[in-house]
Specification:
Non-ribosomal Peptide Synthetase Peptidyl Carrier Protein, Chain A
Length: 93
């Protein structure tokens, strides 16, 4: 029973994180909400350049209270990558 509750809590947290990150992309990345799908490539599909990417990164670090290393940053290609990354970081805190 504990496992089911844990999975449900993680699923709810992931959905909440996705909604918050969508807001960040809309506000900073100047994307339209309907463009943001889990599989969307931030650079190729949304046109996020390196400067905007850094602005988004800073917003994520401030919002969630952790740092993102350059190595970790290079792995964040899709919206789902960011959602998964933030979810895992928060799960370890």
């Amino acid at each position: 029973m504990k496992r089911i509750l844990s999975v449900e809590r993680n699923s709810n947290l992931r959905r909440q994180i996705a909604k918050e990150l969508q807001t960040v992309l809309v506000d900073i990345g100047r994307c339209r909400l309907k463009q943001i799908r889990m599989s969307v490539n931030l650079r190729e599909d949304l046109g996020i350049d390196s400067f905007t990417g850094l602005e988004i990164l800073v917003a994520i670090e401030k919002r969630y209270g952790f740092r993102v290393s350059e190595r970790e940053l290079n792995r964040l290609v899709t919206f789902e990558d960011i959602v998964d990354f933030v979810s895992k970081k928060l799960g370890k805190q």
